Amino acid sequence: MFKYLTVLLCLTIHWILEAQLTPGQYTLKKEVIGQRFNATDIYGKTLRFSHNFYDAFYDSTSNRLFFSTRAKDASGKVYSNIAFQYCLDVETDSILWTNEAHKFDITKTNDYLFFSNDEKTTRFNKRSGFEQYDYPSRIFFTDARNKLGFCFNKSGSVNGSENLKCIYLEDGNVKWMNTINRDFDWNEIKYLNDSILLIASGGLHGVNLKTGDTWSHPLITGDTQLKKFVFSPIAPESSTLGKDPFLSSPLENVVTQLSSNILIDQDRIYLAGKDNLICVNTKGELLWRHDLTANPASKSFLYINGNDLSLFNLGVASFKDRIIEYGKPFLTGLDKLTGKVSFNQSLSIFSSPVDFRIMDTTLFVATREKMYQFNIANGNMMYMLEFNEQQYGRFTGFIDGDKYYVEKEGFYVSLNFINDKSTYFKTDHGKVYGLEKNEILYEYQISELFELDKKTDRYRFLNKKDESYVVSPNWELLARLKTGSNVMQIKNKIYYPAERKLHIISLNDLSHEK
Predict the structure, then answer these.
(1) DSSP 120-134
(2) Which of 98, 155, 204, 416 has the most neighbouring CB atoms within 10 Å?
(3) Which 3 state secondary structure label does DSSP give 294?
(4) Does 433 or 9 have the greater pLDDT score?
(5) Tell me, what's the pLDDT at 11?
(6) Rounded to whole angstroms, how far apart are CA atoms 79 and 98?
């Protein structure tokens, strides 16, 4: 009895000591973090903080890990603006400096160290942690090669729009300024080449980074709405709708994401908005335009196969942080060189898609109850699979067979290693199925699968609940670690953030007994 009371007392004291960490305080302790395949213990270091691990960036030039921790409110669900910044020497795993700050998002560039909040960005000295320059607004995009940053000037406007400024990161001086609108989000930013940046925002824009010269083709990519919406069941993690745009709209009551991806195919660029699909050359000259007003687009995806260009419209859009039903799904095929329409297929046979997947020339679209297969070359439906809810459950999403692993006779292999011809999906029965040639051939319990967290030349880090499994290139288990996901490998160590902790483990300890 005394033994159990002693253990309980030790655990209570440990909990009290952790709970009494003052804001910004941290502790470093060596402890058992896992076991090797032969059941011997793996020791590592654990840094404990007063707040949750939030953002991190490894700077290879200084061999330092910069990261931030951030407090949550009383509910434990919403982050507050109380944050701390840390600099860790990767060689010694010692904290070199720490700051209390209201900026917690890290811009990842090796030349400078930036921390930002929703309103402003500050540049810090990497060595000392002191502030070097306070920019007037948030830098939302950096061009590391040219040491430039993009921000909006809230103090002035041209033609009713905020001024987009391109500034020198070193001193904050303005290089050039123009007025690309931000009312309906900047959905995507993509480099065309070293000097031209493509921006999807109220149209397609090509910006010369050196001069600020811009060519533009307006498109409707958002709308102002006051009516009630029907929320969509679509799986946000499987489409770009689940990702934050590069720059969010400052307006209320706006519907966004009424556009496609920016698609670059050799010397041609494609983008679809609600009203039109356009094709331009690398000089910004319009080659052709396809009118979509008869069948308005919402969130759509462009895909090229040979000379065929396919536009798949999902019939959904974004409203604040939710995905809503907006418009109707359809599939259109065009000649990518001329814009001539080969087919325009309404997909009114289903509504409220949950997820989709394109494999070669087949488009898979699924609702809760059915899965459809369409030939994207002609728009024809090839097959429809209806789920028996009692047997299979309701569809919840497709999964990537390269990212999910299963243990087979002591080896940890990916689902695609078993069969890369199958289309894998999950249901609310807690199962994953493999579909091939319109027949379900594989069935797994989700609880028996491992999700790939990171893959390197020497290791595969798989995640399952609150554990990480380290697997060799030969699919053999090397170690099990009592950590979460989001592993960072830095030289010969791995770093695992886990709420208020940062675990540090030497790679040399994973497969060799000390």
Answers:
(1) -EEEE-TTT--EEEE
(2) 204
(3) coil
(4) 433
(5) 46
(6) 20
Residues sharing a CB contact under 8 Å with residue 292, sequence separation 6 or more, in sequence order? 272, 273, 274, 275, 276, 277
Burial of 129 (0-12, 13-18, 19+ CB in 10 A): middle
The string of pLDDT tens digits covering residues 447-505 is 999 999 999 888 999 999 889 999 999 999 999 999 988 999 999 999 999 889 999 99
Q: Render 257-280 in DSSP notation, one character per residue.
A: --S---EEETTEEEEE-SSEEEEE
Contact at 8 Å (CB) between 166 and 209? yes
pLDDT digits (tens, 9 = 90+) for 172-211: 999 999 888 888 888 899 999 999 999 999 999 999 999 9
Tokens 């600020």 appear where? Answer: 212
* Strands (DSSP E) found in 147-299: 148-158, 161-168, 174-178, 188-191, 196-200, 203-208, 214-218, 223-224, 254-256, 263-265, 268-272, 276-281, 286-291
Residue with tokens 């709420």, as numbered in its chain:
499
What token pair was written down for 12?
């209570």
User: Taking residues 323-340, what's their average pLDDT?
Assistant: 94
d(CA 330, CA 398): 20
Phi, psi of 507, deg, nearest 5: -65, -25
3-state helix, strand, coil in the chain (%, to 5): 5, 55, 40
Q: What angle do CA 123, 321, 204 make, to 5 degrees?
A: 70
Indicate if the pLDDT at residue 103 is higher than 80: yes
Mean pLDDT of the chain: 88
Instruction: Report CA torsion sign: 73, 76, 78, 84.
Output: positive
The pLDDT, as a whole number, for residue 131 is 93
Q: pTM (2 decimals)? A: 0.88
Question: pLDDT category, 242, cuts 50, 70, 90?
Answer: low
With beta carbons less than 8 A apart as the criterion, state whether 185 and 256 touch: yes
Question: What DSSP line would sit under 68-115, residue for residue?
Answer: EEEEE-TTSSSEEEEEEEEEEETTTTEEEEEEEES--EEE--SS-EEE
Residues 6+ apart with CB under 8 A from 20: none
Rounded distance, CA 462 to CA 450, Å? 6
